[in-house]
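Re: your question from the hallway

Yes, I did run it. Sequences:
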Amino acid sequence: MITRLEIEGLALARGGRRLFSRLSLTLSAGEACALTGRNGAGKTSLLRAVAGLIAPEAGRIGFGDLDAAEARASGLHLLGHLDGLKSGRTAREELDFWTRWNGGTAEAATEAARRLEITPLLDLEIRRLSAGQRRRLALARLLSAPRALWLLDEPLSPLDSDWRARFGEIMAEHLAGGGLILAAIHDPLPIPARAVDIRADGAAA
Amino acid sequence: MITRLEIEGLALARGGRRLFSRLSLTLSAGEACALTGRNGAGKTSLLRAVAGLIAPEAGRIGFGDLDAAEARASGLHLLGHLDGLKSGRTAREELDFWTRWNGGTAEAATEAARRLEITPLLDLEIRRLSAGQRRRLALARLLSAPRALWLLDEPLSPLDSDWRARFGEIMAEHLAGGGLILAAIHDPLPIPARAVDIRADGAAA
Amino acid sequence: MSPALELFAREVRLAWGRGGGPMVSVGFYAGVATLLPLATGPEPARLAAVAPGMAWIGLALAALLSLDRLFERDYEDGALDLITLSPMPLELTCAIKCLGQWIATGAPLALAAPIAAIALGAPLALAPLIFASALVGGLAFAFTGGIGAALSLGARRGGLLTAVIVLPLFVPPVIFGGGALDAFASGLPWRSGFTLLGAYAAAAVALGPVAMAAACRNALS
Amino acid sequence: MSPALELFAREVRLAWGRGGGPMVSVGFYAGVATLLPLATGPEPARLAAVAPGMAWIGLALAALLSLDRLFERDYEDGALDLITLSPMPLELTCAIKCLGQWIATGAPLALAAPIAAIALGAPLALAPLIFASALVGGLAFAFTGGIGAALSLGARRGGLLTAVIVLPLFVPPVIFGGGALDAFASGLPWRSGFTLLGAYAAAAVALGPVAMAAACRNALS
Amino acid sequence: MIPAPAFLANPERFMAFSRWAAPMFAAIAIALALAGLWLGFTAPDDYQQGATVKIMFIHVPAAWMSMFVYVCMGVASFLALVFRHALADAAAQAAAPLGAAFTALALVTGSLWGRPMWGAWWVWDARLTSVLVLFLFYLAYMALRASLDDEAKAARAGAILALVGLVNLPVVHWSVTWWNTLHQGASVFRKGGSTLAPVFLTPLLLMGLAYMAGFGALWLVRIRGEVWRRRAEAAALRAARA
Ligand code: HEM
Ligand SMILES: Nc1ncnc2c1ncn2[C@@H]1O[C@H](COP(=O)(O)OP(=O)(O)OP(=O)(O)O)[C@@H](O)[C@H]1O
Ligand SMILES: Nc1ncnc2c1ncn2[C@@H]1O[C@H](COP(=O)(O)OP(=O)(O)OP(=O)(O)O)[C@@H](O)[C@H]1O
Ligand SMILES: [Mg+2]
Ligand SMILES: [Mg+2]
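Structure:
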């Protein structure tokens, strides 16, 4: 299980342009970090680099003394703008598939659906869900298969204020259980979190 | 040009389920209305009904003494979660196309791009834009072809705080020029707006 | 540029992609024409007999391959919502999309069809008729194929479903065009077949857009 | 259920859609088989000679039609990101996707192929060989087609580009399978052709996933 | 012919080398081609094939080059994929249209030759078909590169396709041995030495070398062009962003 995330002297480039360099950040079990920054600063790119989907230009991303490939393969959840839900399948099909794909159990899926109050929606096709309902389904994946590191890209945006608070509770529980959260946000996170501001020169604050 | 939006006793149903009924709302030139409501309350559905994409179960949607079909065809902009931008085309191709499609001029498109600071991004493919950059491109369409009624579905969500404020200024200008804005939101709008809360029983507040 | 022209240009560009557009269609055609003799054995007599027919089948299948997404992408990314919000009647919009598709893929294919047929052993004299009927037939395929593409919007498996809806509509042009080619090759009167093909294409151009617009409105609501 | 099985079930379901899956493939096949006699004229001798070959072409084209989206949808909606974040090697994931595609569309088509060929006038004795070679050939088509589908991820025109990439890869199985059918029909030894088909399919199954995984990683980066 | 990759991997060194190497290769190509054509066209007519045998001096080297260029493209693609070397990628990209042109030339001249020899412009035997497939691979490579906008991604996708296409080369070469083809078997590069009379063999080999040198010149020029284009694009991008 991932208990540490260490980013050292990271530099990322997209399409030939350097986004930021010398970003360093350490996160231990139970800690959350809120990434902020202007549009296009590189928050999403940073999350994808931590997940191993894009290669850094310089610097190191480590997971304590775990092997990076292994840690990524079964230690983290990535939740982005693109949520990987197929508009033609039902919510139940998608939740069940992703739960098992991530190594979770059927009970965990049921419990996650209950927790996020999507149980009555499970037989609807994804395309019929409202934006907030769809996001809750995506969030249910985080609970249905326990993984330590959550990489969240603007997780709150289509949620109503009630659900923002409730997702805050869920995040707090995850941290209390030894989890780590790295979230890119524009609205403040409803939990205490280290703030890191991504800027082109040097980095964090 | 649309100068009034009148919604009377509107009832909407999706997938056989009544979302709300008896919703009434009048908006005149220069006014904005902020639709709030729980996830799944029917905000997006209401915007689509006003745009004429879905038929109401009961009630009337009128545009002053304009013919509804004509008013919709050239009097309103709809901006939703799905922004209609093709991931493989460049930002310029998309902006130019939508500008002309909506009857705007090339100068207006250039000016809109300048205003939303996407001029340097115009030659990038859409799939390379960050979430906020992409949203700004979608917003540029509002300016590139002037239309009176703006139907906005969570317009602020991927914007950074600086751009939220600046888009507030843009909305204020639009209202000052006699425009109308109907926006579904979870975060407060940065302009004075009538608040309407969508609830299943009766409606607005 | 008027919105109609603008839409037309967009459709052509979406279908062609940047650079290498017609080359891709032609390469596809060459591939299909290559597979046939490989599958049936290379005896020239056999091949020559079916060559013009195969040129036709290739055309119909290329149309299927490219039509599949005529509306689907616009539907899935929300562009169809915005396209319908316009003073232009949806029927005209659909017609322009089909026309763009035809120019972008049908026309290069019509140019390649006689070449493929002759490579398979069809007589040289057939070339102009193959070209003309491929051009007219392509129009019929585009406008009937569009109906299938619009009807299968939102269905779970666009590709093959489009094919199944569309194939019956493709049958008459294939009969008429194939018949005309066959008649010409055997020295019989071929004009009637070609005229029927033209009439079918004209009917498709006239009626197809109505059906497409209705199907699109239905998918959006 | 293990993740591998789960993915396999998902792929089969995505390919089939809800209800009527195999029927749709078979309907497509029937349509293609119907078009051929219409396009080439109905003389039985002509048709019978090309019938088994046509069954092959139909198979290859059906594979093309359905392969096109093997990776693209997952790429565009972000599912491919999440699928790669798993202890399962991406090579295996790609192989399972192709296998699912083969079971969902290749197998029903293999069942339909002999029927279509016999309807077009092929001798009854050919049926078992047509079925067997369609089954094995379908495997080769799925695994080579997957390479094309993965390589054209993020390209401007998936459909036809996939076809152009994939057709050269489809040529060898079409030669081997078509050759075996031809040899059998003329009473010549056919085993060598069938063995080559099997060998090609095995090579495709072994090497295809490596190329697909590399192409997917490239598209995501 | 394949320049020592390690030495030329440095773009500066490559540009310096190719500046004089390209014209030199061109001069060699012209000289060899003149000699080859002279010897070829003064050679006696073949007792079976008559004057048509002269097509051989155009056809056979073009057919050899169609495969050789693909090998070059494959090697360059491999280097580009494994070492992420931009110059290797430029080389692969620059080779593709040249290879397609040689293949088209082999197809056209072979077809012109086939008409008098076999009585048909085209037959679907294994040799001819596999060359056509080779041509399709070149087209597919170019089409793929043209339709991916991100240069780095297009480079890697193209490289993967080029490597996949390598499997076709043995089929082209040994098709005449593996299958019973109308096309004649190997007569130059075969076990036990060439069966061709020296009057034909010498001009044929001269033409082969001429094609090779010509390809070398064109390839270098195209790689240079590719390098310049990429530099210009990078500069434009920097300017746009600044
Ligand atoms: C479009 C038709 C043809 C194509 C695509 C074609 C292709 C090729 C290829 C690829 C080679 C190189 C083989 C190797 O080195 O492995 C070759 C060699 C050769 N071809 Fe053709 N060929 C065609 C027609 C002909 C015809 C009609 C003739 C004459 C009867 C002919 C005579 C030769 C000869 C003499 C060689 C040299 C054989 C050797 O030493 O390898 N080709 N051809
Ligand atoms: N595939 C790509 N190719 C080229 N440039 C890219 C690519 N992906 C992203 N970029 C560029 O990299 C920059 C950072 O993008 P990123 O999505 O990481 O920003 P972000 O911080 O998440 O912004 P936002 O708040 O708008 O979501 C942007 O300027 C974007 O245009
Ligand atoms: N095409 C459809 N078929 C059936 N039900 C639908 C369809 N579209 C939406 N719904 C249902 O209608 C309800 C309202 O959806 P809508 O998208 O209008 O909500 P919303 O207020 O915009 O919510 P959110 O804040 O989450 O965006 C939801 O419960 C949704 O499941
Ligand atoms: Mg982002
Ligand atoms: Mg909504």
